[in-house]
Design brief:
By secondary structure, the chain is mainly alpha-helical. The protein is 79% helix and 1% strand.
Length: 299
């Protein structure tokens, strides 16, 4: 039998994170990429607000055990902030992406969603006085150029400009929400915060969803897509995301942003036959390149 020291030399210890982190990042990118596919399928039958209500409610239910376990940490004075963040970070951007999904291919929303990282830095600079740096400034200009290129494109002869505006606005709201979470909810259990914000957003969206609920029958495929959007793409995905943040930190976990558009375009091409246009390629390269540039550490 080998001695312990020899065993370590001959057979190096295998860390789970060496393979688990890339696997979970890829899985999360695939799940969030699929969310744009599910929105594209279901939004036409449900409409934006009813679909978002189902997504929020189902996602909150999946995450509810986290909220129950940490309920004592969320005092009454905290709930107005949770409700506001729920609107800014979930209800409104989800609605904008669902509205865009009725009017443009799934890849369009996913590409604009990539601007979230850049908008988070921009909001921190504009409203919280954080230094933005030359590299991130260049990245922001490149990202905005990508948005302009994307908005100027057409799919099947139809303009997608307003869908791009909706997706970009949603990404900007995500940037505001990320800064609010970091400054007002730091130190609280992340899973509980996600459950609380989704629950508040679901309650606030409910009247609008009821008022616009479709009168026609909803196909089974749209119901299944809505269920997947809530349970998998919201509830399970958030749980996976927070696991990554706890293990590797937020800065590395956010790199999943690079994968989401790639998976979204691939899912839409495989499942719906949606084309990948030259405009989408050019805009995607500009936006994803700018995000990668902004995340590089200074030399």
């Amino acid at each position: 039998m080998s001695s312990p020291s020899l065993a370590r030399t001959t057979f190096p210890s295998f860390r789970a994170g060496a393979w688990l982190t890339p696997l979970e990042l890829g899985l999360l990118g695939a799940i969030w990429g699929a969310s744009f596919l599910f929105m594209r399928i279901a939004a036409r039958d449900f409409g934006a607000l009813p679909l978002v209500e189902l997504r929020l409610a189902l996602g909150a239910l999946v995450l509810m055990p986290f909220l129950w376990r940490a309920r004592s940490a969320l005092g009454p004075k905290l709930w107005p902030k949770l409700a506001l963040i729920g609107v800014i970070n979930s209800a409104v951007p989800f609605s904008l992406f669902a509205w865009a999904a009725q009017r443009a291919p799934a890849g369009i929303g996913a590409i604009t969603n990539s601007m979230t990282v850049l908008f988070t830095a921009l909001v921190a600079f504009l409203f919280y006085g954080e230094r933005i740096g030359k590299r991130r400034a260049v990245a922001l200009f490149a990202g905005f150029a990508g948005v302009v290129v994307l908005a100027s494109g057409k799919v099947g002869g139809a303009s997608i400009g307003w869908a791009v505006v909706a997706g970009t606005t949603a990404a900007f709201l995500y940037g505001i929400g990320a800064n609010m979470v970091r400054r007002h909810l730091t130190g609280l259990p992340a899973g509980a915060v996600a459950a609380a914000t989704l629950s508040c957003a679901a309650l606030l969206t409910l009247p609008f969803a009821v008022a616009t609920w479709p009168s026609h029958p909803i196909p089974v495929v749209s119901w299944l897509s809505a269920a997947a959007l809530g349970v998998i793409c919201s509830g399970i995905a958030y749980t996976l995301y927070y696991r990554l943040i706890q293990r590797i930190g937020a800065a590395r976990a956010v790199t999943v942003t690079y994968l989401v558009p790639l998976f979204a375009v691939a899912w839409a091409w495989l499942m719906l036959g949606e084309p990948l246009t030259g405009t989408m390629l050019s805009a995607g390269a500009l936006i994803l390149g700018s995000v990668a540039l902004s995340q590089r550490q200074s030399a």
